[in-house]
Amino acid sequence: MSAIATNLQAVRERIAKAARAAGREPGEIMLLAVSKTKPLADILCAAEAGQTAFGENYAQEGVDKMTVAPQGYFLRGAVDRNLSWHFIGPLQSNKTRLVAENYAWVHSIERLKIAERLSAQRPAQLPPLLVCVQINVSGEASKSGCAPQDALALCQAISTLPGLSLRGLMAIPEASDDPAAQRAPFRQLREIADSIRAAGVPLDTLSMGMSHDLEAAIAEGATIVRIGTAIFGERNYS
After folding, report:
1. CA 21, CA 52: separation in Å to the nearest integer?
2. Which of 65, 98, 131, 158 has a 20 to 30 Å separation from 109 between CA atoms?
């Protein structure tokens, strides 16, 4: 068994244990393998171990990986469902067409302008682009995301756009080693989602939790955890 396969098995066991501790079913939680900066060989190794959902932060890097199909894999997630591709990084206007035409999910919408461009540029022959609104729950200037008080209006506007299917919220809280401090922003995101649902906008997704805090996220209701380092190891940005 490869190191990546071993790591995947360990992460799945963590997810299952955390789900059971929270009184939830492990099958309620999607494992999204964050493959940014990692080579295609690592992605194929994870796919051989049963991983199907991959997250990329850089639009072109992800598309470059999708358009290669060695060993019989169909990698373009927006067209083929063998592997699905999620865009999870900050999205600028000049990259929306690339994302709209190639990805199955976008987790990081923070402005209506970006959603409108994705809507207009999603090819009609593809299924709706599944999207989440990113919320800056920690209020960090260095983090993307809309302010919590603006989330309802943004979700209401996005929910009316053709070519998009609003699924939920995403957050990247400030890192902490304290379990209680980890849970607080995840709880806040869940409560924001609850308030948006109460206002009549259906949401079923909370994209939250990474390698160091997935247990806290699952305890607070995460439905997608975004795991990179615990699967692929530390990243090399050089």
Report:
1. 25
2. 65
Long-range contacts of 77-85 (CB under 8 A, 24+ apart): 77/102, 77/103, 77/104, 78/102, 78/103, 78/104, 78/126, 78/129, 79/126, 82/52, 83/43, 83/47, 83/52, 83/53, 83/54, 84/52, 84/53, 84/54, 85/54, 85/55, 85/56
Rounded percentage of the chain residues whose pLDDT exceeds 90: 79
Amino acid, single-letter form, for residue 175: A
Q: Please tell me the class of the 3-232 domain.
A: alpha beta
Euclidean distance between CA atoms 159 and 141, whole angstroms: 27
- Mean pLDDT for the stretch of residues 3-19: 98
Q: Measuring CA to CA, which residue among 133, 206, 210, 208 is closest to residue 164?
A: 133
Helices within 22-135 (DSSP H only): 40-48, 59-66, 96-102, 112-121
The domain ranges of the chain are 3-232
Which amino acid is residue 202, in one-letter code? Answer: P
Q: What is the pLDDT of residue 237?
A: 58
Q: Is 114's pLDDT higher than 60?
A: yes
Q: Mean pLDDT over residues 3-29, rounded?
A: 97
